[in-house]
Task: structure prediction
Amino acid sequence: MEKTLIKTVHLCKDYDNDGVITKVLHQVDLEIKAGEFVAIMGPSGSGKSTLMHILGFLERPSCGQYFFDGQDSSKLTDDELAVIRNEKVGFIFQSFNLLPKTSVYDNVRLPLLYDDKKRVKDHKEAIKEAIMAVGLYHRMGNLSNQLSGGEKQRVAIARALVTRPEVIFADEPTGNLDSKSGKLIMEILQDLNEKGKTIILVTHEKYTAEHARRIIKVIDGSISDDFEVKQRLLAKEESDLIK
Result:
């Protein structure tokens, strides 16, 4: 049986804007096991991105508990959380967040600049491995502004992979892409999941969510539904039909 990687207990998140309290998440209870492919789905303003930010250690919850790999994150210092964020989680964003006029190689290398444990030789191997995983080895020396949108997102995936994290968070990863590029991104994410990587996808699109194995629906800051996908969409089959 797979271990529980992520667990929240009565998780909540409030924002204080000059004394005006906005409640974004309410009593969220969920468990995600290692190796799952989960889509967190909901409309704009539902709280799904805030939930991802907390699960990815970009924000702290206002109340409740968040356990990552058995550790209570509330008991960890900011420095300890930064180490987990750099070593155990990877992020893919809708806007790519690549450094402009910087090579594919150097964009992928960026997370390793904060890792002083590995030798430079190990870094080089990890970078090449990550770039090959997304099929861009032939573009390794190209600048990011010379790439298409789909290629930029593949670089972002390689950057998320380079530290060999336990979980990858993908926030609307196909939102800025055409349908063909979007299918390729979903194919890469499904392939990574097949190889054992935990994937947590945030999306407002039902079609994108159905590429996951499980869908968690968030409405008005609470989980409204949580179910296994019975007829999962396979991006590779869809891509083959386009060719």
